[in-house]
Every structure is written in C-alpha cells, then in structure tokens.
Amino acid sequence: MKIAMISYYLPSGSKIGVGYQAHEIASALAARGHDVHMFSACPPVDGAVYEHHLVDPGPRLRTFAFAFRLRALDFSGYDVVHAHGDDYLLWGRRMPRHVRTIHGSCFEEALRIRGGYERLRMLLLGFSEVLASLVADASVAVSPQTRRWTPWVRRVIPNGVDAGRFRPEPGERAQRPTILFVGTWGNRKRGGELAAAFQRSVLPVIPDAELEMVCRDAPDEPGLGIRILGRLDDQQLAAAYRRAWVFCLPSAYEGFGIPYAEALSSGTPVIATPNVGARYVTDDGRAGVLAPLDDLGAELVELLRDADRRDDLTGVGLERARSFDLDTVVEQYERLYSAGPDRAFAATR
C-alpha cells in the first residue's frame, strides 16, 4: 500500500508522544513493505525508513495553519491517508481511505491546563478533534476512556511499543533503589511534584534512593538524590527503564501514556496517578499501582522496600504489555486500511 501518514509532531522536533507513536507506526509499516510518506511540520527523523514531506505552517497559529496547508495537498495518489491530528479540513478531498487516530482529548486537557490563552487553544483543538472524527472514513481511539468526547467512535486500537527494544534484561537492574520518570518538570506531567514527593517522603526512609528524570525543562538544581538525564536516544531510554526499580509518571491527564506501556514491557513496575491513560494501561491498577498525588511518596516507599510485590507486578505487567505490542497494533491498522467505509457522519466525496 501507498500510505500518507500525517503528524504535526515527530521526535526530531518535539517531545510530544503523538509524534513518537506516528514515527513508530510509520517505521513498522515501511518495514512490512508499505510505501509510507510522512507529512509533518517537524524535520526528518535521522535514520527514518519512510519518506518525509515537510509541511511548513509558518510562524503564527502553527497547528491551525498546518491543517490549512494539508488541505492544499493532493492525496489522491495514496491508498490510505492516516492522520494523527490536524485532518479536520480534509472533508470533500479525493482519497480512497481516510483513517484518523484520536490520541486523547484536548477538551480534557483544557480542564487542567493553566492560562486563558492555552485553555482557549485547547478548546478549539478539541472541537477540531470532534470534526475530524466525523470527516474520516474510520476513526479509532487509543483507549476506551478517550471516547468520552466522541462516543460514536467505536473502535479502539492502543498505542504500540516495540517489544524488541523495551524488554526485560536480567542483571541490568540498578544496585541502588531507583525511580524513573519520563516527561516534563512542569505542566500536566508534574515532574516537579514527583521530585518534591521523592525528597519529602522517600529520601528520609530510603536515603540511598535515586530519582532519574528523562526531562529537558528541569531546574539546574533539582534537589538531593535527583539525576536529570535530559534527552535520551532509543537505546539509552530502553536501558533506563531496565535499570529502574520503579517507573513513576504522576500526570494529571494522559489519553494513553506510552511511557506506562514502555515500562511494563521492560519489566518495570508502574506507579501512576489515576488518569485516563494510566487506568487503561494498568488495567485499572491490576498491572500497576494507582495512587492520588498526595499518597505518591508513601506508595513509592512501600514498593521500593517490597521486592516480592515488585516481582509480582513485573509478571502481571509483562502479560498486560502484550496488548500493546507494536506488531499487533500495526496488524490492526493494516486490516483497518483494507476495510470498507464505516463512517456514519463523514462528508460524501
């Protein structure tokens, strides 16, 4: 198949998880013999095995301008257009098959984000997500709870994790109790709150514990026992998961939360706040620990001190991670690409 993949974000220009997932799916599809073309506002990813097309949205209102630029492009020569966002203006365009993946809800983010401008921007993007779900031939959500704002979207295909890269390796666990965080210090990922809980509750009880943070917006002096890893490449990130005793991401909202699935696939127990994505990936806490932000420190202490419980969670987590295997996810998309139209509301072409 000749596939046009649309993602404003890519790992080459953004830390947003949607871009990483679009890149992973495009790479896996290309490895399976498909002719994949990526349309993005970000530059090419080094070593990418698919073709890259830069769509420059200009300096102002970039995400909205990107959607307008897409409408001007000719997708009629592709078998499938698979969008990970910004396709809400593609109604009436000639293309055999239009698939949209809904990675979360900007409405949900608008409920939690700070600042009037950013809240308005998220609300507008939320309406664009609803419109896109009506325009596409087939829309999928990455978790059942993501369907809250688009209940007519029936199909769920989770995000995928490369199990060949994110896997357990005996003997790679750190000697000292280590917690891993992947995200941002501020905003909804709440890395700063995790750092405070670590220093307030964990260090007094487990003084040799360490918090490793894959984070690029941390302060220069994050605090005692905290090591900022900055940005890691794929292999370094996989090694960080295997090194950690526990993975913790106390995000206020995740539509899915790819790091949770990467941790489970790596055999690392997960502690999370009970956001939408964490609840889904951990099977409502059966494959991980869900705790309110105020209880996070106590839960971290308990899990770091209980090797048997960590072993139990590792086993259950590895079984749960099979649901998010990238090969299985890509196979589901391949079947969807070949299926007949199932849109209920999309504009007639």
TrEMBL record:
<dbReference type="InterPro" id="IPR028098">
    <property type="entry name" value="Glyco_trans_4-like_N"/>
</dbReference>
<dbReference type="GO" id="GO:0016757">
    <property type="term" value="F:glycosyltransferase activity"/>
</dbReference>
<keyword id="KW-0808">Transferase</keyword>
<dbReference type="Pfam" id="PF13439">
    <property type="entry name" value="Glyco_transf_4"/>
</dbReference>
<protein>
    <submittedName>
        <fullName>Glycosyltransferase family 4 protein</fullName>
        <ecNumber>2.4.-.-</ecNumber>
    </submittedName>
</protein>
<feature type="domain" description="Glycosyltransferase subfamily 4-like N-terminal">
    <location>
        <begin position="17"/>
        <end position="164"/>
    </location>
</feature>
<keyword id="KW-0328">Glycosyltransferase</keyword>
<dbReference type="Pfam" id="PF13692">
    <property type="entry name" value="Glyco_trans_1_4"/>
</dbReference>
